[in-house]
Amino acid sequence: MNYPDKIIELVENNFSGSSELLEKLLTIFLDDISLLKNDELLLSLKNELNNFAAIQNFLNKIILIEENSRFDFINNYLSNFNNEIERIYKNFIIEIIPSSLLTISNSYTIQKVIEKLFENNPKLEVTVCESRPILEGRILTEKLSCAGIKTRLITEAQIPISIFNCDCAIVGADKILSNGNVVNKVGSKLIAICSAYYNKPFYVVSTKNKLTDENKFIEDEKPIEEIYQTGNKLIQITNNYFEEIDSSLITKIITD
Questions:
Q1: Which of 34, 114, 146, 254 is deepest in the core (most CB within 10 A)?
Q2: Which CATH class is domain 1-256?
């Protein structure tokens, strides 16, 4: 299907988390109401963005709504998002008020929760895994540092020693499966395993729109050139963006 340029840019965006992508999509729809009337486009986006439960759940709802009510629905959806973040933050600090934490990738929800933690503790220290191969953890690091937060950027290989020096680990979620497992950026499971080894809490922080009826995760192969370019056919390269984290490794899923 031929997408408008703004939609193509969103579909090809590998740097933003699912909540941020959803917010961008809603803004695109509000800027061009005609797109809301194109059910073929909405169904095609469901297929293109099938790894992101928040977007899937939104598209499932909007398709069932009458066309003349879709604009108001999106406005309400956007206005409720900040309230969801506030509720997540309040639920998080019931569990722990960390002075240091470790996270991965570039999650809008994680960013906003960390910023709220920093408002109440200016000495908060944050460690961010750079999140290979796209390195979107660097983006989150820049965002947090711009907010005045002391931030350390590490590779995933440095997770074991880094989590040892943190109060807890928090990650976002692209999907929460019906069996309690969570799908998130590759490297998240290593954080969970290391957290368990060092007896550190491992929290998943997510809005409820990441909940799905699915109980199985299928890995999506990404371009191998992002890992390594070679003409040697004996070298096998695997590039996955997402992985499944067993519920047994998760201290708690904190949501709104």
A1: 114
A2: alpha beta
